[in-house]
DNA sequence: GCAAGGTC
């Protein structure tokens, strides 16, 4: 039987390329979770049937088991020893099922994942999904390729190897370390500070070995600025008039910090009165054309010249890529493969209305190969693939595309050549100079005009000439602090220190912005280039805004806090330390679990020390933020002390009881207000009415205490919880509103307010108590919405049930003028499913159908009463005093 | 509500 070969790539585009090459473009393609390309060709000397498909990045990601997901009952320090599990990154994509199905009947598996550690790790994810075992006679091969070209693909096919388990394990190690360290610190500091201050305005106060050093760079610069002490300085500038030019000469000493000494030199020059030409030199200089464009450089230019943040830039680039206008935008490489088809790429641009002429000129007058760059073995530099116009792309995407084209054309253009003339003078024993520049070959700067050299003409001087000084200026200045860190500088720092990757740098920067640790300041930039012969469109690219990152009080307090307690925590070395440790695993020099244990133990000690020393960070917060007791407005009464609690509206929204010193989180979306001063029969807390945003937002009552500490077990879907039915995932702000409460006599519970089963899911349709006059039912689990007769004075549930379908009988008090009842009667009782009148008046707003078919009971009896109590609050544990440890000790 | 890494 002919062998069947399954090949798996990291993304659909690579699967397509591989299949095209190996089949000679003679393949059939069918849809699946990802596309599958099939064809027959030779494999290891015999005729074989091929299936080529792909994953979409990692198939799995790590997380904690359900038992460790509850913030209130899990001590963060226990996370270091907690088990972890791998779950599908995107369950909806069904990648695992897809691979398993495609692998059925296959005798050989060839892994075409990207050739880096992450790719090696994904190899083993794929192996797991396919169920291939080396023991069952089926063979597993690893294809190693450095680019997705025909030559490299064929070369890889002829030298199939084995996947590298050590490299894959090093990624497993990083995942576990990042997860445990990040989540432990994040949960601890979030709970600590949000439980103490009311105006942090931060839903989560996160920590991570990439994001925190990223923030650290921004705060470092901020601290430099605040510590800066300006100094006065003086600069001597003599002027001469010569052959019609007025020239301002530069002093060799540049500037002096002493007023008297500067004045003395000034007097000497004035006394001399003559400038003597001592040397005239001319040099031919050159400014090199760029090498290929990689992601980091694209992000930097986009931020400093286009005013686009990294997040936006990557979104735009992704779109340009999927539409076929540019090549793959996530790459470290600045070198093109030797086989790259520059002619073809230029050819693709010749009809472009903006660049066509320039591209044509390069084609006809010959082009230079791009300057050598670095080949990271991933993807070629970012290159235009297709011509596009502004109309077809939209403004922002066009600006980015335009830059990518300009850069590409620049790489193929000649270097810029210019003459640099330096004239040196002497007067009063002091040296001066002036410099002129003249371009001889503009080269790439004619397509990238913002990089052009500034030209300056000088008259011809002869050595020994003496020229009268027309005036002498002594300019006074102040040294000035640096500006806030520009995003472009930050990207350079991250790259230099190995913080993040080409694909994740933008995510880390976006994180520290979204979490309110830094604020983006937009600076207008004016291009100083006026020598552009091309359309003004090109020039306008560079006249946008630059972005700088100013840390917020929260960001500053965090970093200064780490610096007080353990500066390792916010230094970039923390990433290199982890990288160094896992590299030992990747190289097979250390055992995976030993390394993980060792690194986690160090971080556990650091964590423990941090917890003990948190007062030092807290002192900074105290100086900056208001305690909960001073925040918010009085809203509702606490059931324990019967005093009013304060509602704090900044994120995360919560109630604070100053007497009990307790915090109760409320739903984070929508608004809350007091609900008719009604109280919960279980705990005496006053009920709140929460209204979700939007015209069709639900309104529902909730008890603050029950919402945070649900009193009944077995509630199968907490409000706001993921729909995966993971009922133990019960973080703060994810709890039990009254519409999920199975209390049998409380008038607000699902027992009293529930009407019938939801036709869409396993939930219950509940009467919205404040929806008049547009009365409606909504599902307590999904977004199903049913409108009831409009304009009724009152609609309420009764204690009666429909004998036919077990739904709750409702009572409607119609408006006198619009009542559909005979003889102007207004009161009507019935089942909304079985009563013909009522059923004809209800309407399904969201959901497919609404009828008696397929309905169930209203789900009573769910949940069982349980006493209050149990574990509350975060245990601090009884850790021994652990010394702070430095990585450098290991 | 948490990390960082793939990719869409």
Automatic annotation (TrEMBL):
Which residue ranges does the record assign to the Toprim domain? 4-147
The reaction(s) catalysed by this protein are: ATP-independent breakage of single-stranded DNA, followed by passage and rejoining
Alphabetized CDD domains for the sequence: TOP1Ac, TOPRIM_TopoIA_TopoIII
The alphabetized UniProt keywords are: DNA-binding, Isomerase, Topoisomerase
Basic residues bias located where? 848-877
Q: Which InterPro entries match?
A: Topo_IA, Topo_IA_2, Topo_IA_AS, Topo_IA_cen, Topo_IA_cen_sub1, Topo_IA_cen_sub2, Topo_IA_cen_sub3, Topo_IA_core_domain
EC number annotated for this UniProt entry:
5.6.2.1
Biased segments, Basic and acidic residues type: 879-890
Q: What is this protein called?
A: DNA topoisomerase
Give the species this sequence originates from. Solanum commersonii
């Amino acid at each position: 039987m002919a062998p069947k070969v399954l090949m798996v790539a990291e993304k659909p585009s690579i699967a397509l390329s591989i299949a095209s090459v190996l089949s000679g473009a003679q393949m059939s393609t069918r849809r699946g979770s990802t596309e599958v390309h099939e064809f027959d060709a030779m494999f290891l000397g015999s005729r074989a049937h091929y299936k080529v498909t792909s994953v979409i990045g990692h198939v799995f990601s790590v997380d904690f088991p359900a038992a460790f997901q509850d913030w209130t009952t899990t001590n963060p320090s226990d996370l270091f020893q907690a088990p972890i599990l791998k779950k599908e990154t995107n369950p909806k994509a069904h990648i695992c099922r897809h691979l398993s199905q495609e692998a059925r009947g296959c005798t050989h598996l060839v892994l075409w994942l990207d050739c880096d550690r992450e790719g090696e790790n994904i190899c083993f994810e794929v192996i797991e999904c396919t169920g291939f075992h080396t023991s069952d006679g089926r063979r597993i091969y690893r294809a190693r390729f450095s680019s997705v070209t025909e030559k490299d693909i064929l070369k890889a096919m002829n030298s199939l190897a084995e996947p590298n388990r050590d490299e894959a394990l090093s990624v497993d190690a990083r995942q576990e370390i990042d997860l445990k360290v990040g989540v432990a610190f994040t949960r601890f500091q979030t709970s600590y500070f949000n439980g103490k201050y009311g105006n942090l305005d931060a839903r989560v106060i996160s920590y991570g070995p990439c994001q925190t050093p990223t923030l650290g760079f921004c705060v470092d610069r901020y601290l430099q600025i605040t510590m800066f002490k300006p100094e006065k300085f003086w600069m001597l500038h003599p002027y001469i008039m010569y052959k019609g030019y007025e020239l301002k000469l530069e002093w060799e000493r540049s500037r002096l910090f002493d007023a008297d000494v500067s004045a003395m030199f000034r007097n000497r020059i004035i006394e001399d009165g003559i400038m003597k030409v001592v040397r005239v030199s001319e040099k031919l200089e050159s400014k090199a054309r760029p090498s290929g464009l990689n992601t980091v450089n694209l992000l930097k230019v986009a931020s400093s010249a286009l005013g686009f943040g990294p997040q936006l830039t990557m979104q735009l680039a992704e779109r340009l890529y999927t539409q076929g206008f540019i090549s793959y935008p996530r790459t470290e490489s600045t070198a093109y493969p030797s086989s790259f088809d520059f002619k073809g790429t230029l050819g693709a641009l010749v009809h472009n209305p903006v660049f066509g002429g320039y591209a044509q000129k390069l084609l006809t007058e010959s082009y230079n190969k791009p300057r050598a760059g670095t080949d990271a073995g991933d993807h070629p530099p970012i290159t235009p693939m297709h011509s596009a116009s502004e109309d077809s792309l939209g403004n922002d995407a066009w600006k980015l595309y335009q830059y990518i084209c300009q850069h590409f054309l620049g790489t193929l253009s000649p270097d810029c050549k210019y003459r640099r003339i330096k004239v040196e003078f002497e007067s009063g024993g002091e040296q001066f100079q002036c410099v002129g520049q003249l371009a001889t070959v503009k080269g790439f700067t004619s397509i990238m005009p913002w990089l052009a050299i500034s030209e300056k003409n000088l008259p011809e001087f002869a050595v020994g000439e003496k020229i009268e000084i027309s005036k002498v200026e002594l300019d006074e200045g102040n040294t000035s602090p640096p500006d806030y860190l520009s995003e472009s500088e930050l990207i350079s720092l991250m790259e230099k220190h190995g913080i993040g990757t080409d694909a994740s740098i933008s995510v880390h920067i976006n994180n520290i912005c979204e979490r309110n640790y830094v604020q983006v300041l937009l600076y207008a930039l004016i291009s100083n280039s006026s020598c552009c012969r091309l359309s003004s469109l090109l020039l306008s690219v560079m006249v946008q805004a630059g972005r700088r990152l100013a840390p917020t009080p929260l960001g500053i307090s965090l970093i200064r806090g780490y610096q007080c307690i353990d500066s390792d925590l916010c230094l970039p070395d923390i990433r290199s330390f982890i990288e160094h440790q896992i590299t030992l695993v990747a190289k097979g020099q250390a055992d995976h679990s030993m390394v993980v244990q060792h690194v986690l133990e160090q971080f556990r000690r650091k964590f423990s020390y941090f917890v003990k020393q948190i007062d030092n960070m807290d002192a900074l917060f105290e100086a900056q933020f208001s305690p909960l007791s001073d925040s918010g407005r009085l809203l509702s009464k606490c059931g324990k002390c019967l005093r009013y609690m304060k509602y704090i509206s900044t994120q995360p929204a919560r109630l604070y009881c100053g007497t009990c010193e307790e915090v109760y989180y409320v739903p984070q979306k929508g608004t809350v207000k007091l609900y008719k001063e009604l109280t919960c029969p279980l705990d005496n807390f006053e009920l709140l009415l929460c209204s979700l945003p939007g015209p069709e937002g639900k309104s529902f009552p909730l008890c603050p205490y029950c919402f945070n500490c649900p009193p009944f077990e077995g509630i199968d879907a907490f409000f706001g919880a993921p729909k995966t039915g993971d009922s133990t995932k019960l973080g703060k702000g994810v709890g039990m509103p009254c519409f999920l409460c199975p209390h049998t006599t409380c008038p607000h519970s699902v027992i009293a307010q529930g009407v019938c089963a939801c036709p869409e899911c396993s939930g219950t349709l509940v009467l919205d108590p404040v929806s008049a006059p547009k009365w409606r039912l909504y599902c307590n689990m999904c977004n199903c919405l049913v409108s009831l007769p409009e304009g009724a004075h009152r609609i309420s549930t009764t204690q009666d049930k429909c004998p036919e379908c077990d739904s709750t009988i409702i009572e409607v008090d119609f408006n006198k003028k619009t009542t559909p009842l005979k003889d102007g009667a207004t009161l009507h009782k019935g089942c909304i499913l079985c009563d013909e009148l009522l059923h004809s008046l209800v309407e399904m707003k969201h959901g497919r159908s609404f009828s008696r078919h397929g309905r169930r009971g209203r789900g009573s009896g769910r949940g069982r009463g349980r006493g209050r109590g149990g574990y509350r609050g975060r245990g601090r544990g009884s850790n021994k005093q652990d010394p702070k440890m430095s990585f450098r000790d290991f």
